[in-house]
Amino acid sequence: AWPYVAAVGGALLLLAGLLALRYGRQWPAMSGRYERGGAPRRRPQTVDPDRPEDLWKAIDRGEDPTSA
Question: Which domain holds residue 10?
């Protein structure tokens, strides 16, 4: 029975893929609701790795404290 269940599941996945190819262009696109604004980025501040609160503040500012 399991081979038939797997075959039906595969057929459903194939059908879903074909429908997505056919009608995908008509689906609504993502909006810019969560896009970043065009404001200039601030220069990254130096982070002291020995002070955990500085690492968290850098993350809050949107900086990557692990980058050199």
Answer: 1-32
